[in-house]
Structure formats: structure tokens, C-alpha cells
């Protein structure tokens, strides 16, 4: 319907509202109007009106109904025809009948531009090789449609390219960029997207660069260009775009997410690091580059290199050690004790009057303590130096709420490494007196005291303290820890039924670590006790386990040797070897540890500890023997033999790291 007819119908609607459906004037008016509508519409419309109007009793209502139906049909008839053309074209396209699609899409596109229709039209042109007809269509549309003519030119070029006319196609691509309406930046973006759609990323890049020139703004389309540069392997340009965008918007998180997506290859990561160092040297007063480098180095777990950058930032911008402190904690969590010590030591030396000083002073000792504990065998002289460090800290800062955790750490060193249980007890009791207002701390000390009673072979005193903490810390991680220690104490003393009852509760604990430990101990008890199994062997095994807890290592190993000799065919045989292997590993007797693990792999590979033994062996060869090839061989063997193992994901990751893959 043309514009005049639309206006005429609108006028009729206004008249109806004014006449208000009453009196003969309305009745006569409706008779005249319905007659006009019946004369205007097709036979099909007349039929619909007559059929739907049958049975109307009120002549006015009947005529009004005819009027409304007729007007609705007139208003939408042209749009319906246009929609029908598009729908019909879509239907033919889905069936692959391109000979019918081409004229229909031409008809639709002449009336209203649609990129999807244009793409489909182009696909059919190529399929039928209707290039001459398409060229005429593109030429006509290019001239008649000023707003989107550049897109027709683009697909004209695409058609030429697919017919082997590369030079002519390139010329059309250039024309399409030049045809964009003046300073229409959205049009540039749209054209770039279309170039990307047809896999012409170079033209997409040129389009966006032209948009920058036109808009006189170097910050335009940085994210889009970065993606295009990454797609075409132009890593340095991609890095430059994202870094300059990061400086502009000062949003590290957004830029970091993109770099994680784009920097997959080792060579690209090396370029990124090199560019960052260069920018830091050229622009030392722009912290963004150093912050990005620190982020990158921590992702690579190169905490010592990250510390150098963080220290430089701290000194230049006066951060008072806060970011260095955070880095130290991150390094400690990742077991990079050297970098952690460096970080905390820097704060202690450079900010002796700062708020972070007491915390850094203690954390520096904590990092050293973790380093000592994880270097096998543990050297007693190193433990004594740690205790002296704690004594100096307490002498300097006093025994107060700020140093309570230091007192706990010192007490545990006395108890578990120097076997000076009475000294440990005195320190903990003193700490409880000082920190009595902090209930969580008091309960932690009670757990420590319970452990010391277990070291002294006084299990009932232990369970009393553990139970007190269970009661005061219901449904908390500390309460779950108390329940786990109680269950372990019952296991040590041979009360397996009570131990398993507590462990089965803990298997549902919110803490994954506690749930895993509880599940492992519960399974050990279940597999080696019960109606058909004597508990004597299990009690012997648990008693030896307690000896190891009490640091009576050699006595425990002698009893394990005797037990294995007499129980080689017992279900506990692989557990005995596993306990021996772990004990030798803690002693630094790496070869003896491997020998026992190899026995598990050779004789008990189908039992539950087969994959554990392989994984631990691979770790020993990787970290203790520094034998990369043997370690890789064992990780691969684990993946092949135990694909469903809980260690499979970690084994695969370590294997790829050792092989030099980029993760």
C-alpha cells in the first residue's frame, strides 16, 4: 500500500472515533465504507470478510467488524507481501534452490538492506556462477543506496576474488572503504566486521586504521585491532594495542584476560616480556607496565623476578611495602620460600617503623620455617635457628596479641622437632593466657596441646582437648579439624569402630582437604577390619603409625620390616610398603623410598595404591633426583595405566611442563 492509502485509512479511523458508533450517521457511514473496502480488496479478502461476518445480528456491529478487518488487511497487505518474499527466499535457500533465491533476495534487498540476505545472495551467486547478473545488481545498488553502498561494493569485490580476479577485487575493497559516509565510525566498524566475516583480516585492519585517521583518535577500536592482529599472527602489534588500551583505561583485569587468551605460545610470551621490559625502561613513571610484568611473572611462578619489579615500584611510588607483602604471601602459598623470604625481609629492613613490620617480621620466619620443614631430611640445627629467630621476635615485639601465632609456631617446633614437649606446653599455656579473649586462637592452642599429649602417649588427655574444641567449634573448619584429630587418635589406639564413625561424618565436611583425609583413613580401616578379618594386623599397623607420629622413626621402620615379612599376602602389605616409602622420603632416603614404591607397582598395581606409588615415584625423580626423562616416563605410565586416577590431571600437567609445552 502506498503512503496516500495509508493516510486515507488513518483518516477513516479518526472519523470513526469522532462519530462514536451511534445513530444513523454512523450506520450510513459504515455501509459506504464497507462497500468501498469490498470493492478495493481482492476476492480472497472479500471471501474472508463474508465468511467471518456470517451470523452477525446487529447490522452496525457487522459493518463495523467488516470495516476493522478490511482496514487491518489493507494496512499490512504490502508489508505481508514483502515479508512473504523474504520468507519464501529463506525457504528456497534452506532447500538449496538458488535459482529461485537470487531474484527474490534481489527484490527484498532493493527495498530494505539486510546483511544476512546479502550474504546468502552472494553464496547463491557463487554457487550458480551468476556473476554477470550479480555485477549489474551490485552496480545498481552501489549507486542507489548511499548508506550501505559500501557493503555492496565489498561483496562485489568478494565475487571478483572468487572468480580469480584478485587485483580487481583488491580495488573494490579499497573502494568500499572510501565509500563510507564521512566520519561514520560505526560504518567503519561494520565494514571491518564484514571483512572479517569473509576472512580478509588485512582489509579489516586497514578499515579500522582508516577510521582512526578519520576520527583523529588513536584510541579507537583497540580491542578489535588487537583481536585481528592476534588472528594474523602479528603478536607485537597486538601487544602494543592492548598495552596502550590498558594505560588509557587503567584496567589491568580486562587487559590480563585478553592476554591470557592471546598469549598461548612460548615465543609470544617471550615477546610480551621483552616489550614490557623495554617500556618500563622508556617510561619508568608509568606503573601500568611494571604491574603487568609482575602479573605475568607471577603467572609463570617466577616470584623472585616479580619481587625485583615490585620492589622497584614500591620505592618509586611509595606503596609502604603493601604490594611486596602481598607478593610475599603469594610466593609462600606457591611454596617459593626464597622469594617469600626476600619479600618479607625487604619490608623488615626498609620499613622498620611501618604498620606491616611486625607481620613481615613474623612471616619472614614462617617462610624460613616452611623451607626448613620441606627440606629433607630436616636439620635440627636449622630448627634451633628458627627458635632463636622467634625468641628475638618476642623479645623485640613482646608477648602480646600481635605475636600469639609466633608463640604457637615456636611451641610446635619444640614439640615435634626437638622433642622438648614440656617447653612446648609451657609456651602454649602462656599463649592461651595472653590470647584468652580470642576464642579461635585458644581452641587452636588446645588442638596443639592435644597433639603434644599424643606425643607423650597420653591419648585420653588428647581426646579430652579435641572434644572440647569439637563442642565449641561446631560446624566450622576448626571443629572439623578437631573431629579428624579425634578420629585419628582413636585409630592409633585401636578403637576402629569409633574412629570410623567420626570419619564417615567428616567425609561430608565442607573442607575438601579434611574430607579427603577422612575418606582415606576410613577406607583403610574398612578394608582391614570387619567380621571376616582379624583386627590384630590392623592394630599392629596403627601402633606403628603412632610411633612415626611420635618421631620414633627407626623403631617404627624396624617393626614395619618385620610386619611386612610376616604379612606379605595380607591386604595390608601394600599399605606397609607405602608407609615405609613415605617415611624414607621424609628422612631424605630417596632411593629406599623408590625401592618400596617400585614393589607396590610391581606386585600390587591393581590395588588402591598403584597410582599413588607411580605418582610419588615420578615426583621423587622430578624433584629429588632431577631426572627429567625418568619422571616423564613415570607420569606417562600413570596416564596410560590409570586414566581415571585422581592424579591424572596433575600428572598430565607436569608431563607437559617437563616436555616444555606452553600451558
TrEMBL record:
Transmembrane segments: 54-76
Superkingdom per UniProt: Bacteria
Keywords: Membrane, Transmembrane, Transmembrane helix
Pfam families, per the entry: TPR_16, TPR_6
Gene3D superfamilies from the UniProt entry: Tetratricopeptide repeat domain (1.25.40.10)
Keyword flag Membrane: yes
Signal peptide: none
InterPro entries, per the entry: TPR-like_helical_dom_sf, TPR_rpt
Protein name: Tetratricopeptide domain protein
Organism from which the protein derives: Runella slithyformis (strain ATCC 29530 / DSM 19594 / LMG 11500 / NCIMB 11436 / LSU 4)
